[in-house]
Amino acid sequence: MLNIWDANWGLELGLCPCDQHFVEFLEERKISNSVIYHFGSGGHHLVGVQCMKAGKGNVVMSITAAPQEHKEYEKLIIAEPKLAHHYICYFSDIYTFEGRLMPMFDIVTLFHLGEFRTEANDAYGAHSEWEVTRRFCAQTRTGGLVCFYNGSNGWGETVPLIERAVKEGLLEADGVYKTLPIYRRTAKPA
Ligand SMILES: C[S@@+](CC[C@H](N)C(=O)[O-])C[C@H]1O[C@@H](n2cnc3c(N)ncnc32)[C@H](O)[C@@H]1O
């Protein structure tokens, strides 16, 4: 059975401000016309909805492992079909990520690495935390950004993944915006 996340996460800025910080980051850096992959839509779908509202031409693909959150997405685009031009949320387990099914991304968020993978994922040969990190580096264009969240429950497990990606020459540090350490993709094949 797929290791689903059986919840519907509302916007909890006190607990988990990463999505809000990411939206502010896009605005502050004046990022436009970018293709964004977002790990963990939440039931609020803030990143997709705000990218549409900002009108800067950014488009978002997000993933949720919660059927309830995907239902929220369905409700959103049924009520406001315009959103579907800017934002796709799909339901799956990120630990099954297959880049050949995806476009190249300008920006990737890996905010929840290290939080949700368990032995239940092993039962269907899901990728390791490192393999997902590597695959998303491969799926980010040279000069694109890979963003992390240092307030995550999985941050302890994420740090060595970032260190390895830097050591292997896949990522270079590009500063920290609020709670979000930002890394830039190098040209080295992942
Ligand atoms: C705590 S919520 C955070 C949502 C949002 N990023 C925020 O900060 O408000 C965790 C998110 O990760 C998603 N998630 C959990 N396990 C996942 C998995 N294996 N693959 C993809 N998404 C997953 C959940 O569906 C949920 O959207």
Provide structural commentary:
With 190 residues, the protein is α/β, with parallel strands linked by helices. The model has no long low-confidence stretch (mean pLDDT 98). It has a seven-stranded mixed sheet. 32% of the residues lie in helices and 22% in strands. A hairpin with a 2-residue loop joins strand 6 and strand 7. It has a single domain (33-185), classed as Vaccinia Virus protein VP39 (Rossmann fold, 3-Layer(aba) Sandwich). S-adenosylmethionine (SAM) binds at residues 5, 9, 16, 18-19, 40-42, 63-66, 69, 93-95, 111-112, 116. Residues 5, 9, 16, 18-19, 40-42, 63-66, 69, 93-95, 111-112, 116 line the site of S-adenosylmethionine.
- Overall, the morphology is globular
- How much of the residues is beta strand, in percent? 15-25%
The level-1 CATH class: Alpha Beta
Are there runs of 5+ residues with pLDDT below 50, and where?
none
Average pLDDT taken over every residue: 98
Q: Give the number of helices.
A: 6
Q: Which ions and ligands are bound to the chains?
A: S-adenosylmethionine
**Sheet/helix structural class:** alpha/beta
Please give the order of strands in the largest beta sheet. 3-2-1-4-5-7-6
CATH superfamily: Vaccinia Virus protein VP39
Assign a percent range to the helix content: 25-40%
Number of E-type strands = 7
Alpha-carbon Rg, integer: 16 Å
| Quaternary | single chain
What characterizes the major β-sheet? 7 strands, mixed
